[in-house]
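Example (one chain per record):
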Amino acid sequence: MDFGGSMQGYVKASYVVFAFFSAFFFGAIKGLVVGPIAALILIIGNVGVILGLFPWHVAWTVYTLLKIEIFDAALKVAFLIALPALFGIWLGIGIAGSVLLGVGYGFFTPWVSTFEAFRYDNESKKFLHCLVDGTLGTIKGSCTVVRDFADMCYHSYPSYLKEIRESPSSNECLRLRLIHVPACIIVGIMGLIVEIPLFTAIAIIKSPFLLFKGWFRLLHDLISREGPFLETACVPIAGLTIFVWPLVVIASILLAIFSSIFIGLYASVIVYQERSFRRGLAYVIAMVAEFDEYTNDWLYLREGTFLPKPQYRKKMVSQSSEFSVRGNNSVSGRVNTSMEAPAMFMPSLAPSRSVRETIQEVKMVQIWGNMMRYCEMKGKELLDANVLSQSDLYEWLRGKNGNEAAIVGVGLPCYSLLQTLLFSIKANSSGVLLLEDFEITYLNRPKDKLLDWFFNPVMVLKEQIRVITLVEDEVRYLEKVVLFGSNKQRLEAWDNGGLVITDALRAAQIEGISRRMIGMIRSVSKFPTYRRKFRHVVKTLVAHSLEKDASETALVSCYVEKDVAEKALVIHSLEKDIAGPGRSTRSIVSVPSDDNV
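Predicted structure:
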């Protein structure tokens, strides 16, 4: 029995090893075949968008810089002088990033898709999906990336510049004194000279720790069947992670070098904000210490850093010296700064959760799809009620951005968001309640910085609506305001029972809620994936409107035909009654009556 069990385990282990290496090499072959096609589509598409829209980007940026009033003439001239360098950086980063993204996406996506086929239980499905997955889907995905990037460059960036131009000017105009220009230039150059080599050195020196500690964590999870190795279906993908971990380490080094460029250039901003050359130099020194401490925390090395970290921001209380240069090995000795540690891609080496544990966490894709379906449902209701029309939908499809067709581009998402919040409040939900009892709370929401930026304000807005306790008339008026905004004619034309609020305080509260909601939707609409998904919603609404018009036309035609048939039947019946039995209808005309004889 023991011998048979050991042989069975040996055969099973051999099968797993054979299947893993077969998928490994077959995925690499698919990457070599499909990768060049997907990479060429992505590289040519993104580079074409960058170069094709580059003159327009320059024109839009210069026009916005000249129109805004928060900068004085000297500061505008300084920005105009710096624009060629900034646009040169944009071209370099955009083209290089497109090449790296195209190669990485085209090669690794088919590779990973091959291992994802092991999630199926049926062996034939595993084999089929190993062959099919990651081929045509990768090519379609590269086209989607190009489309989203084009939306961001052609729609989101001009919309952002337009909001800057139309925003009310600040009471305090930002001014640039000529004496600060040399200091900004010198400190910016020094920041590049210091940050790039030191960041590179720190990243390279600590890369072996990242490599071996990462391997140790993954192998520990593999042996103990923890984290990503808890489910058998995820073992192949987790095993692939062990093989490609050196590439992750190399990517973290490159990203550290890339981030050091912008961190070094930010020293010029510190000089301008603090009006101090020495504080700019202090920032350059402090950022090296911040980066060293940041990597120590991620890699579980010694706490703090031995490098000096001077204070580069003005303190609220007086200090004995302008700078406090000291190590920060202890928590009490750490100097507080107003800037977070510089960002670096450093994979977490903490014990990872299993896939089964993360299933309970709501994914961003689910939230995105649920919001779009709810927006589509509310749009159909408004179309059926003749609140929205086909012309509104076509106006958004023809417009460059949502601001040109605000009723559909901004009003419809605001209206659906308002209905979501009202529904959540009525259901006494602790979070946001979406379709099919899909609830997002602080516990199950995705741990994503981007979602935090949107989720927390939505929860605050929900609490504000709940606290002021809107009555039915006020809710109806708020619906009109968020849907039509400043379009007074359409707002007054929609009779939904909402009346103008006479109380000044309540009116101000409702207007404030509508402005915050509109601002959030305008910000979200700049995301590249948003426009593609919302465009699909608008096209669905157009199809629904056409079907509605066709059904109404068919119904009217049916009523007309039925009315004509009924009239013909009545005429025939009258003629038959007048003719009498045994007499034809022709005798009514041809035979004279007795009165005429």
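Caption: Confidence is low (pLDDT under 50) at residues 316-361, 582-597.
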